[in-house]
């Protein structure tokens, strides 16, 4: 046992080291703020895109509990914290007490959210699904960009129906892409599913769609993060006929994190940051 515990502040200020035993000789104490991307299939390599450090104490002895002030100014936090199937992006503070044999290390993760404002352009989505002389369906959604607690509102129109459809559903697909070139890997995950109808539609019929995104655990859309990974979302419309043949159409949507009207103080141990100016 090291006999040292680290108490982390709510915001940068002081790091408290509790001495719970005999005196501790050390070769210096430092604190780091790190931004790191970890590929789960490449455990040995972590990619650091942010690294700042401060020396807290010169070599000496710790004989009692003490605290050290620290501050990291104008830290660029350009990406959002993210944990996926094959990749993790995290920010964390690390305190290292250097010793002759084994260093003592304490870490505390910092959650970063990238807050956005309403997009300047947000056009409706309109698409068609068709099989020549058999099926013609048009569907539209009210927007192409949605915040995490938004509602997808749309409508499906059956223009021509000459095949017997028994089931239709709308799902949200998340596609996590890691790597690049020949080493690109796509991980598809169905986040949510919404049954539109159960039974055969008729020509001229229309069906409304209303899908609440707040019911699902989504992250914002992330494109080419540090040239390591991307996260994209798609609306996937699926039709199944009486012979269990499946017809589908996908359309990408953009998901973003809405800036709250008021910032609530984060709980102890979690720091919330917006985008730097």
Protein described:
Helices cover 0% and strands 56% of the residues. It is built from no helices and 20 strands. The strands form five sheets. Strands 13, 15, 16, 18, 19 and 20 form a six-stranded mixed sheet that branches. Strands 4, 5, 8, 9 and 10 form a five-stranded antiparallel sheet that branches. β9 and β10 form a beta hairpin. It is elongated and about 85 Å long. The model is unreliable at 1-10 and 262-277 (pLDDT under 50).
Mean model confidence by pLDDT: 83
Summing up helix and strand content along with how strands pair, one would put the structural category as: mainly beta
Distance between the termini: 44 Å
The ordered string of helix (H) and strand (E) elements is EEEEEEEEEEEEEEEEEEEE
Q: What's the helical proportion of residues? A: under 10%
Which blocks of ≥5 consecutive residues have pLDDT under 50? 1-10, 262-277
Label the overall shape: elongated
Largest sheet: 6 strands, mixed
Total count of strands: 20
As a whole number of angstroms, the C-alpha radius of gyration is 26 Å
Amount of beta strand: over 45%
Total helical segments: 0
